[in-house]
What does this fold into?
Amino acid sequence: MRSLYKPFTLLIAIIVSSGLEAGNPEMNFGKVSKEELNMTIYTADSSANAVILYDFGSSEFRYDVNGDNGWQLIFNRKVRIKVFSKEGTSAGDFHFTLYHDGTALKEKLEDLEGITFNLENGKIVKTNFERENLLEKEEDRYHTGYSFAMPNVRAGSVIDVSYRIKSDFLINLQPWVFQYKIPVQWSEYNVSIPEYFIYKHTLSGYNPLAVNEVTDGRNSIVFTNKIRSVGQVTQTNFERETFHYIEKRFRLAMKEVPAFREEDYLTTARNYTSIYSFELASTKTQDNIYKDYTTTWEKINDILLSHEDFGKVISSHGYMKEALREAIAGLSTDQEKVQAVYELIKKRIRWDGHNALLANDLKKAWNESRGNAADINLSMVSALRMTGLQAHPVALSTRSNGFLNLAHPTISDFNYVIACVVTNTDTILLDATELSAPAGLLPVRCINGRGRLILDEDGGWVALKPCLNSKQAASYTLLIADDGTIEGSANQTFEGYNALDIRKELTGLGNIDVYFETREKNIAGLKYISHTIEKFDTLTLPLKIKSVFTLSDAIDLNSGLVIINPFLFEATSTNPFKLRERVYPVEFSNPFNETLMINWTVPNGFTVDHLPKPAVVVLPEKGGRFTYNILQNGNTITVISLINLNQTVFLPQEYDNIKAFFNQIITKQAESIILKRI
It folds into this structure.
């Protein structure tokens, strides 16, 4: 009997499927109604600039009866979108990324069609998408990006798009996105899985399924065998052979899915968007022989260690030896060697901006001084081991990629790797992609729950948390000249992520003077007399900025009462939390501390008429504290503001607390000092 179980290729990488936007049940592709074209609003959300009317997708398995590919995965998708305004025309822009493994195995885009419909003089006018306008770009060694924009899209248009993706990789079915930045009227995903494959499937997000049906059905494969008879006359006969099998059929649908509203201080929309995902858990043959895939974190550990672009590249590299020998010459402690290796890799290989779990080519990255995150950080693991240190890779999911679900082991959730080194006194997490970061300070994108330590013996979890909080302090000394100009000096100190941000900003500007010129443009009347920046290149120390400045036309001394905003341009003036209520958590990347101390000199001929009162605002469970104090000593007034935010995640039910906290900071810092003429 013919066996249906053929070895197939598993995708051991992150399959990026971004921008897959919509499809439709019972949608008659290419035929729209005048009612759809005449729509002016979507009644379920009258503010929407566009709406996905219908969204239909399907994933099914087909057996390559005429070739050697075995099972293949076929994903079909159709979508109809209605555009209401100019702002909604971007709904006609599509992008997605397909995977290939460097051989003949790949995901392939097929049968892409698109039509834009417009109503002109009462007639329906069609504009077809031309395949030649499809943009194709190699994103890295394994991924090709495809982008296209539908033609002639304007307010009132209806867009139909359909395409197929044929994949040789079965570890992930195409995830189905139910929710987008525009509302969805109806979205449906139909999946048929042969009995030989067992998939884990999960639904993320807050929206319920309107349809959730799972049934068993029968399907079959027909093989045609060519049989030649040998004798006086050679004859060729064809014999058909049919195999029947059971498949699991999923019908999943949502209706009237609201638009996902991006909110400030949210790790990523992906954590809360409604998406249905499938990942291969195991297979079985016709003889009921099972094989497990990614069913435990330990097995994922083994897969990564044996992968040619992950574990296999971590070795002793001859091309590094001379540079590494020079970098650690004369160093004796583990800490010194870690610092030296970190600086060597960071400066030798510049990050190309691509997050990556798998390396492209470590030697090429070294020689060309440019590589993805995996090229850089796996090179660092190798270099640390070459110095005799105990170092290992840590696989993780970046903040933009979403949380890892620790209860459901899934290799495809990883999209990044950093290094972990164990010294005689400490365990340090390292990422050499940020030029302005000191060793041990992970980029904010990596602060996302936990990472998986990939070891020869099982591995484990490490907390991805900041080793330094964000801190900034500013001390101002201000006096008011006779013409109302404020003359002042400032000493500012930045630590942790605040220092990283300022250093990156200064580096990006290319000239430190531009930083101060930009502030002069943004703050009316501000003119810097002098400025200095200290410890810019000493990344382990706080960054310090000192300046002397004037602020013209700031104070009116001609009236009987003089009103002063004590915090000048340092006051918090806008609450980032403006919504009446919040659906999703508030997520800060790290705790932060801000200290402001402003010393005002009362000008001659004036005395204090009114000073704001001290205040203390405390969040529940010691989540944060705001302290406001004001003191007068002779003709000097000192105003102090201390903001400490210790809690980094506030649940929706705690939203009112954090919103009120910032409102009280804004209100208090806006209170005026009032002087009166003697």
